[in-house]
């Protein structure tokens, strides 16, 4: 039995905002099946009572004083933008036609 | 000895004494880069004029009587995953082609403050995902020992640049072995500091709970000098450790293992390991014993599931981190013809801008984090992570350092594993546990494998904030082996 189907990979690609070509989907589905089969080995470890670690070191959240500091000038922030209009990022439409 | 064959420490001293200028040192390295880059392809960006301007500035600061650090005027190659305002920053990806960041990474800033002269930006696996540098969108880097082989990865441009004498020092980042493995397969020194010991601010994120900047050099002392130059607490990185940098330079100057307890990790070795790698490793263990170390075997049973846990945790974090490449504020934008929605443009851009390994990992991470699979995959991997940290903790009650081969094999041929992701992932088998637990580890050259005459690395692992121990042991090994060899391992590499 395969660990992951082509349809599942297609669904994950949509969730990940990756417009994959059909050949890419075929290729990745086969490879991901092998990879997921291998990483599923973590399930063999008896770890019911073990607390999870999200992080290597026991750090707690760090806050800085809430002080105003200089930030980027508009031209710096926009310098690498794909499209700019009136000192703002110009983006494709983000709402559906009905909006 | 030519300037390009001189160590960073010696170059710093020569420049400080006025025997040579920073400009002369930069010129020598730029000439070397011009000569060997067509073969090696270590750099994505070199700007000779900008390099010389930095060198002139160091000479001027010195002439003005400014007190400068030990590496002032020494050239360095900088991994192209750290932001630089005056050079492009691509992370080896088409999605960031030509990108000029608006701020410097903390590591970049500290290199500048220390007076290091940045020669250029080095090649890497796209977004630091890989073990061969073949995943770069800008073509592979070649191993100076054998141009048909990989220089390791992801920091393969940085390892190759140092091994090919294009720079005495370089920066890398290590998420699963991306400094230690390239160092091992190119016959140089590479160090993964304790997580949080070096700043991630301005480091383009791959897996934030694992990413660690670190140094490459041709010898242990040079690596320690660079380590010290860019490490230390950074308020701009919320996971930065607020503790003094371990005294790594002092340790590198005083290599000594007398009375040291050394643990050999039982789980690393056997099937899948190249005989020549194991032979050099066992000799290194005997060497440590002959130098007065007490060697014992240590079992770390959870290390055998480190690789699967890593390939759930790292892609999960990557799938989240790389969501920022959305074609809106910077980087590539594809298909914005006025008819498509932002979401369609985003999906087209990401499909065109990311390479296959990045796409695989984004999909894998999205899968591991999706509801229904989260507990079985990501959640379970996090528990394994706890067990690995406990194995280290128990081991470091018994011994001062742990040792293993850095990689199971020497440098493999370019193309051999390019379309077999699982085979590629095995290159990081011995290095991954350290990333999951956050402790320190170094790779130091320990000889050439008999089968192929290629370099083998010895990995030395120390507890969290025990970075100095890595350098102390590595320096002792280096000194003893160089006496035996009559020079550095790298001096045995064929001339380019």
Q: How would you summarize the topology of this molecule?
A:
The complex is a heterodimer of chains A (99) and B (496).
Chain A: H1 6-15, H2 22-39, H3 74-78, E1 84-85, E2 88-89
Antiparallel strand pairs in A: 1-2
Chain B: H1 8-16, H2 22-40, E1 43-46, H3 48-63, E2 75-79, H4 106-113, E3 117-122, H5 156-163, E4 169-174, H6 180-186, E5 189-192, E6 212-217, H7 220-230, H8 248-253, E7 261-265, H9 275-290, E8 294-298, H10 306-321, H11 342-353, H12 356-369, H13 375-398, E9 401-405, H14 421-425, H15 432-437, E10 440-448, E11 455-462, H16 467-485
Parallel strand pairs in B: 2-3, 7-8, 7-9
Antiparallel strand pairs in B: 1-3, 4-6, 5-6, 5-10, 9-11, 10-11
Essential attributes:
heterodimer; A: 99 residues; mainly alpha; Histone, subunit A; two-stranded antiparallel sheet; 2 strands; flat; B: 496 residues; alpha/beta; Amidase signature (AS) enzymes; eight-stranded mixed β-sheet; three-stranded mixed β-sheet; 16 helices; ligase (chain B); protein biosynthesis (chain B); ATP binding (chain B); EC 6.3.5.7 (chain B); ATP-binding (chain B)
């Amino acid at each position: 039995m395969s660990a992951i189907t082509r349809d599942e990979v297609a669904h994950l690609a949509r969730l990940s905002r990756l417009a994959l070509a059909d050949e890419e989907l075929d290729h990745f589905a086969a490879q991901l099946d092998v990879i997921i089969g291998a990483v599923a080995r973590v399930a063999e470890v008896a770890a019911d009572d073990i607390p999870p670690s999200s992080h290597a070191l026991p750090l707690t959240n760090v806050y800085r004083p809430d002080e105003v500091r200089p930030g980027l000038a508009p031209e710096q922030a926009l310098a690498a933008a794909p499209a700019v209009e009136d000192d703002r990022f110009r983006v494709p439409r983000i709402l559906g036609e009905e909006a | 000895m030519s300037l390009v064959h001189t160590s960073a420490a010696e170059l710093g001293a020569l420049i400080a004494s006025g025997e040579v200028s920073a400009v002369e040192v930069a010129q020598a390295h730029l000439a070397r880069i011009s000569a060997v880059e067509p073969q090696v392809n270590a750099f994505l960006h070199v700007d000779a004029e900008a390099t010389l301007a930095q060198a002139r500035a160091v000479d001027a600061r010195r002439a003005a009587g400014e007190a400068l650090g030990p590496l002032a005027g020494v050239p360095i190659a900088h991994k192209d995953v750290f932001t630089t305002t005056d050079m492009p920053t691509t992370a080896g990806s088409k999605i960031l082609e030509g990108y000029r960041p608006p701020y410097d990474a903390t590591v970049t800033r500290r290199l500048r403050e220390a007076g290091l002269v940045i020669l250029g930006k080095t090649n890497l696996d796209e977004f630091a995902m890989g073990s061969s540098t073949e995943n770069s969108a800008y073509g592979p880097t070649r191993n100076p020992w054998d141009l048909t082989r990989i220089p390791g990865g992801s920091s393969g441009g940085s390892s190759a640049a140092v091994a090919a004498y294009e720079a005495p020092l370089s920066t890398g980042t290590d998420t699963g072995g991306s400094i230690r493995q390239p160092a091992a397969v190119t016959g140089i020194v590479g160090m993964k500091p304790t997580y949080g010991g070096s700043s991630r601010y301005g480091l383009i994120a791959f897996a934030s709970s694992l990413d660690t900047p670190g140094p490459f050099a041709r010898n242990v002392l040079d690596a320690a000098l660079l380590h010290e130059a860019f490490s230390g607490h950074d308020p701009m990185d919320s996971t930065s450790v607020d503790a003094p940098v371990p005294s790594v330079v002092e340790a590198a100057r005083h290599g000594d293992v007398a009375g040291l307890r050394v643990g050999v990790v039982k789980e690393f070795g056997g099937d899948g390991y190249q005989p020549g790698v194991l032979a050099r490793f066992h000799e290194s263990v005997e060497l440590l014993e002959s130098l007065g170390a007490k060697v014992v075997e240590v079992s770390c049973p959870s290390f055998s599931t480190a690789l699967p846990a890593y390939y759930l945790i790292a892609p999960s974090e990557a799938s989240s981190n790389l969501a920022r490449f959305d074609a809106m504020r910077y980087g590539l934008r594809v298909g914005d013809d006025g008819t498509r929605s932002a979401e369609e443009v985003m999906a087209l851009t990401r499909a065109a801008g990311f390479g296959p390994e990045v796409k695989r990992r984004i999909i894998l991470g999205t899968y591991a984090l999706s509801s229904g699979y989260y507990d079985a995959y990501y959640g379970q991997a996090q528990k394994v992570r706890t067990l690995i940290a406990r194995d280290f903790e128990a081991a470091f009650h018994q011994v001062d350092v742990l040792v293993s081969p850095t990689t199971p094999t020497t440098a493999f041929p370019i193309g051999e594993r390019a379309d077999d992701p699982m085979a590629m992932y095995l290159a990081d088998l011995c290095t991954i546990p350290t990333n999951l637990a956050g402790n320190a580890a170094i790779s130091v050259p320990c000889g050439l494998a008999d089968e192929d005459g290629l370099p083998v690395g010895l990995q030395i692992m120390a507890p969290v904030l025990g970075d100095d121990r890595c350098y102390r042991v590595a320096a002792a090994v280096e000194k003893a082996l160089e006496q035996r060899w009559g020079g550095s391992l790298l001096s045995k590499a064929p001339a380019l």
